[in-house]
């Protein structure tokens, strides 16, 4: 199978041999894999007209357990989303009956968000196929390779965090 990322690196090596383009191979492959995996997730969520960010919010609330309530900013942080679009995202989820909001009694400007029973049922329906898809994405690697890759990616994320 052709490796288009390697083709790009080879082209740069030919045209500009003084450039060190090796890191581009890693970054390019990570970005390409992310795009492919995002497309797979979109197909899984399409039936429910659900976006990845919406699923992340629902799954974040679900994994907190019980009747957990989070503020929108806590939810954005836990779901690894930006706070900018969180309000609109929560509006959409509330309209569909998957989350409920209530005022924060300690701060009139704030709210708490919780998962509804319908939201919990939806996450429970989708999380098994989501995890199975993740397994399928990594099936070319054995368990030891997956663990090593996870450690290396975590190291890169830590070094690149603000």
Question: What would your notes on this structure say?
Answer:
The protein has a two-stranded antiparallel sheet. It is mainly alpha-helical and 162 residues long. The mean pLDDT is 91. Helix 1 runs antiparallel to helix 2 (22-46) and helix 3 (52-64) crosses helix 6. Helix content is 65%, strand content 9%. It has 2 domains: 1-46; 49-160, Arc Repressor Mutant, subunit A (Orthogonal Bundle).
Keywords:
Arc Repressor Mutant, subunit A; elongated; 162 residues; mainly alpha; 7 helices; 9% strand; two-stranded antiparallel sheet; 2 domains; 2 strands; 65% helix
* Low-pLDDT residue spans: none
The average pLDDT value, as a whole number, equals: 91
Strands in their spatial order, largest beta sheet = 1-2
Level-2 CATH architecture of the largest domain: Orthogonal Bundle
Strand content: 5-15%
Protein structure class: mainly alpha
CATH top level of the largest domain?
Mainly Alpha
Order of helices and strands: HHHHHEEHH
CATH superfamily annotation of the largest domain: Winged helix-like DNA-binding domain superfamily/Winged helix DNA-binding domain
Instruction: Write down how many β-strands occur, each being a DSSP E stretch of 2 or more residues.
Output: 2
Radius of gyration: 20 Å
Largest sheet: 2 strands, antiparallel
DSSP summary: helix tally: 7
**3D shape:** elongated
CATH topology of the largest domain: Arc Repressor Mutant, subunit A
- Tally of structural domains: 2
């Amino acid at each position: 199978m052709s490796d288009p990322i390697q083709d790009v690196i080879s082209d740069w090596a030919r045209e500009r041999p003084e450039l060190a383009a090796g890191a581009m191979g890693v970054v390019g492959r990570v970005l390409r894999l992310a795009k492919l995996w995002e497309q797979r997730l979109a197909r899984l969520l399409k039936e429910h007209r659900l976006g990845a960010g919406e699923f992340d919010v629902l799954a974040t609330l679900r994994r907190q357990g019980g009747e957990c309530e989070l503020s929108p900013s806590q939810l954005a942080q836990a779901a690894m989303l930006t706070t900018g679009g969180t309000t609109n995202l929560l509006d959409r989820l509330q309209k569909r009956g998957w989350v409920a909001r209530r005022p924060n009694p300690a701060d009139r400007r704030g709210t708490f968000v919780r998962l509804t029973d319908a939201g919990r049922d939806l996450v429970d329906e989708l999380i098994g196929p989501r995890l199975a898809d993740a397994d399928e994405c990594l099936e070319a690697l054995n368990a030891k390779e997956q663990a090593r890759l996870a450690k290396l990616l975590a190291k890169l994320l830590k070094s690149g965090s603000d």
